[in-house]
Amino acid sequence: MIARLPVLSTFLLGSCHAFTSTPNPTLYASFLPYSQRTPMTLASSDSNSPIDVFVEGVSKRFEIAQESRAGGASFTQIIADVLAGEYDADSTKADIEETVASAPCVMFTWESSPSCKQALSAMEAAEAKVKIVRLDDPWDEGNPIRAELGKMVGKSSVPCIFIAGKYVGGFDSGPSEEAPGIQKLAFKGTLRPMLEEAGAL
Question: What is the pLDDT of residue 37?
């Protein structure tokens, strides 16, 4: 579906343009890399009008999606990158690493996520001490963290759980056998020893 968006968008713009009398190549500018674009001016008395800001924002996020896809990102990671927008990746990664190191068990969550609620309930049942980091309060700060977490651990979904600084997956899934999620670790009998060794129990 994503691969068809540029073609579909260009087709739609071309179809709309067919009803105008004079060709306007700038209609297609938002679908070109920034280096190939020419300045585009909308019918506005203010170059910083809400319309201009909106168009530039959409264009930039479209470019982010293209770059993320070209880098081999999964669909969910592309969405995470687009929602994050432009951010300082190095600074965000450093903040994540500092947070992960600040407690024996750290869980990045969304308050309304069913999986996050299940993970929290499981940790409460185990009487584990968990540091909760909400990525939805506020969203504009949480979205870059989620995008960067996805790049760091290979999975952008929540919850994102770390024990003793090590990523262990989410609630019932993870990207690898080493990080399968806390439910599978509990079934294997390794979750409680990991929590104990980390000092979270």
Answer: 52
pTM > 0.85? no
Comparing C-alpha atoms, which of 144, 42, 129, 22 is closest to residue 93? 144
Phi/psi at 96 (5° precision) = -65, -50
Nearest Cα to Cα of residue 137 among 120, 121, 158, 156: 158
Cβ-Cβ contacts under 8 Å for 65 (sequence gap 6 or more): 2, 78, 81, 82
Residue with tokens 């992960």: 100
Query: Are 82 and 178 in contact, with CB atoms under 8 Å apart?
Result: no
pLDDT 10s digits, 151-189: 999 999 999 999 999 999 999 999 999 899 999 999 999
> What is the Cα–Cα distance from 113 to 152, expressed in whole angstroms?
21
- Phi then psi for residue 87, to 5 deg, are -155, 165
